[in-house]
Structure formats: structure tokens, C-alpha cells
Amino acid sequence: MKFRSFDSFRVFEKVAQLESITLAAEALNLSKSAISYQITKLEDELGFLLFERVNSRLVLTTKGRRLWYVAESSLNQIEREINLLRGENSGTVKVGIVSSFASRWLSPRLTNFFEQCPDLGLKIESINSIDEFSNADFSIAILWGDSWSDYEYELLMPTSSFLLGNRKIYEQTRSITLEEAMKKIPLLNDGFYGGNGGMQAWHRQANLEYNPSKSSLKITDASTRLQAVVDGQGIALWDELVNEEIESGKLFYISDIMLPGFGYHLVYKNKNSLSIEEKNFCKWIRSELPKQTNSKTL
Questions:
Q1: Total-model pTM
Q2: 115: which residues sit within 8 A by CB, 6+ positions away?
Q3: Domain chopping of the chain, boundaries
Q4: Three-point CA angle 258, 259, 263, nearest 5°
Q5: CATH classification for the domain delimited by 92-158+263-297, as one of 3.60.20.20, 3.40.190.10, 3.40.50.1010, 3.40.50.300
Q6: 189 with 216: CB under 8 angstroms?
Q7: Cα separation of 168 and 163, whole Å?
Q8: 106 in Cβ contact with 97 (< 8 Å)
Q9: Which helix (H) or strand (E) holds 159?
Q10: Contact (Cβ atoms closer than 8 angstroms) between residue 46 and residue 158
Q11: How far separated are the first and last CA of the chain, in Å rounded?
Q12: Which end of the chain is more exposed for a tag (fewer CB within 10 A), N or C?
């Protein structure tokens, strides 16, 4: 049977990207009923389900995810060709990046980027979690963590992450046990899986129960979170990016227990659908870092 519902693919691609009929309706300026109709129509013609509901959340089926990869790649290719034919190819790459990595690692190297890639523009969006990335309109992100289900990712820079606090909090922790400190002193979120995935992983590494103070502070932006630690608002996980604060005596190690296996990663929505410009950005940033071998797709 000849397939006819090509008009539904843009709707499908947007619902798959946002994992929400409501958000897709807002993005496409359509009603929710129109979105639902298009998805049902597409599923009926295909003869298989594209989505299933898991805990009130819309999730792609295995066949739906395979089709999404093809649909996203094809639609992006068509859009790029149209822009080329119109003479509107901007050559600008849009990337979501954790603010601390963008300001402390990437910013000093941007001159090198523009020297090596003079035909590329770069637009950096501050991003702090995989949830923000899933709803964003760009295809590449640089995030801190160790793994992300349903996304392709590759390690750019492994980190040695430790618990840090300012002098006042450091002195406070010297008079109590580490376990007591983890329960009494506010723990600042790290933006990884629900906001505290890294902190929970550290507790497992330290063989401690994760039972934080009720006064724990949640700050989404990484750079703002760092300043909060310097100001004595609590304890947070940090890495080599804050060596300057450690060396200047603004921050102190609360424990010598290191969180292994975490680092900064390139994360892709669909690596196969990257534009030439996006591929060139990824190639450049890899060249600025030591080669890593653990690229993964889940």
C-alpha cells in the first residue's frame, strides 16, 4: 500500500522531540485535538503505535523511535536544502552548554574556534539538564554527567569531582562527622537527572545514605550555583573548572572522596542528522581536548 500521510511527519517529529502533545501544539500553533488527529491518522496508516504512555508521560515505542530518527534527519535535510536554494544558509551552529563549562573552558578558546572555522557562526544557549535539552530547538548539547538513556553521547572531558564548600562551611565540617555534615549542611543540586543525580552518586561512592537537609538549595544555573558555594550557601560537587577558587582559598575540599566516571559530554538528539556545520563544530571541540574512547549510544 502506498504511503500517503507525509503531511503528518512534521507533527510526529515535533511530538517525538517534545514528548508532549500540548507542547507540540504550542510549538506548531495547532490545537491539541489537531495534533492528536494527525498522530492517530499516521499510526493507522502505518499499522503500528508510535507512542505509549508511561506514568502519564508520552514515550516513543521502539518502532516510533526508529521512525523519528529517519523523519528528523530527512526533514532537517529538506530544510537545509531549501535554505541553500534561497541563499539563506547562515552557517551558524546553535549549541546548548552548561554555563560553567561555557565561561571557564570554552570562552578562552573561542578565538581559536573562529580562526580555524572562519565560515561558522556560533550561538551558545545556557542549558543545565537533559530535560531542558529535550525541549530545546538545537541538536547538540554539552552536559555534565555520566550517561543519558535514549540519547547518543560521547565523553569530551573526564572530571575529578569533589565536594567543596567555603572556609566557614569547611571549618564547620571539621567538628562533626562527614555523615552528619551531609545531613545538616545544605547540599546544592548538580543539574544531573532530577537535579541531584551526581550528589546521590557521590553518596553511594562514600557508602553514605542520601538524606539531605530539608534546607537544601536548588539553583539551576551552574555559574550561579558556584557563586552560592563561595558565598557559603551550602556544599556542591565541583571539578577542575574551579581550581582558581581552590588555589585562592575561596573553596575547600570537604572530603577526599572523589566521584569517578563523570565528566563533560557531547550529547546528541540524533547524531546521524547533524548538519555539516554542527559536525564541524564537534570536530573542532574534539580537537581541543585529549581523545576519549567511550562514545556511547543508548
A1: 0.70
A2: none
A3: 6-86, 92-158+263-297, 162-253
A4: 120
A5: 3.40.190.10
A6: yes
A7: 14
A8: yes
A9: none
A10: no
A11: 33
A12: N
Distance, in Å, from the CA atom of 16 to the CA atom of 40, rounded to the nearest integer, reads 14
Q: In what order do the strands lie in the sheet with 140-145?
A: 121-126, 92-97, 140-145, 263-268, 152-158, 295-297
pLDDT score for 1: 60
| Residues 192, 193, 198, 200, CA torsion sign | positive
Give the span between the Cα atoms of 208 and 204, in whole angstroms. Answer: 6
Residue with cell 538524606: 211
The confidence score (pLDDT) of residue 244 equals 94
Residue in this structure with the C-alpha cell 546521524, named with its chain if needed: 272
**Cα 140 to Cα 137: distance, rounded to the nearest angstrom:** 10
- Nearest to 19, CA basis, from 132, 148, 158: 132
In this prediction, the residues of the chain whose per-residue pLDDT falls under 50 are: 293-298
C-alpha cell at 253: 575540599
